[in-house]
Amino acid sequence: MNNNQNIIIKLYETFDRGDFKAVKDLLSENFVAHLVGMSATLDRDKFTEFGTKFRQAFPNGHHNFDRPISDGDRVVTCGTFTGTHLGNFQGLPATGRSVTIAVMHIDRVIDGKVVEHWGQGDQAGMMRQLGIIAVPGIGLFYSALRQRLGIVKQLTVDS
Questions:
Q1: Taking the model in full, what pTM does it have?
Q2: Quick one: which of 116, 98, 97, 120 has its CA closest to 107?
Q3: pLDDT digits (tens, 9 = 90+) for 100-112
Q4: CATH fold label, 3-149
Q5: What value does the mean pLDDT take over residues 10-16?
Q6: In this model, does residue 154 exceed pLDDT 50?
Q7: CB of 32 within 8 A of CB of 42?
Q8: Cα–chain-centroid distance for residue 70?
């Protein structure tokens, strides 16, 4: 692995240990994070605050990545995040359920510091695994399809 890849792997290892002082030390002063589902970017303080709250909700959570890919100052990590929901998460009390979600990150490293982060995780999959979002069964899908196609079963009543 090259130096930038090592820095990014270290970033996620320190996150997984819950060492947010070390996480913050790896981020530049002008760090900015773009997270899917968030309406605004996060600066270094807001990002570490978000990470701390996420870690409190999933205290045994860890990332498992395939080999990082880099191009210049950017490092891509793809893999999974696995953890057990043992604390409050965005207003949802602990469920005790385990989750495994697909994640993909692109991080930009300049002079040994992470300056920018783009992160995406399977939020819908996590919500399903936590029991927040129900997955429609085939019967609901069939009914919706029939309705969309205008197929209405005529009911007759015997008199």
A1: 0.81
A2: 116
A3: 999 999 999 999 9
A4: Nuclear Transport Factor 2; Chain: A, (3.10.450)
A5: 97
A6: no
A7: yes
A8: 21
d(CA 106, CA 74): 7
Angle at 124 between CA 58 and CA 5, to 5 degrees: 60
Q: What does the pLDDT read at residue 134? A: 64
Question: Three-state secondary structure along the chain?
Answer: CCHHHHHHHHHHHHHHHCCHHHHHHHEEEEEEEEECCCCCCEEHHHHHHHHHHHHHHCCCCEEEECCCEEECCEEEEEEEEEEECCCCECCECCCCCEEEEEEEEEEEEECCEEEEEEEEECHHHHHHHCCCCCCCCHHHHHHHHHHHHCCCCCCCCCC
The structure tokens listed for 18 are 């819950």
Q: What is the mean pLDDT of the chain?
A: 89
Mean pLDDT of 75-95: 95
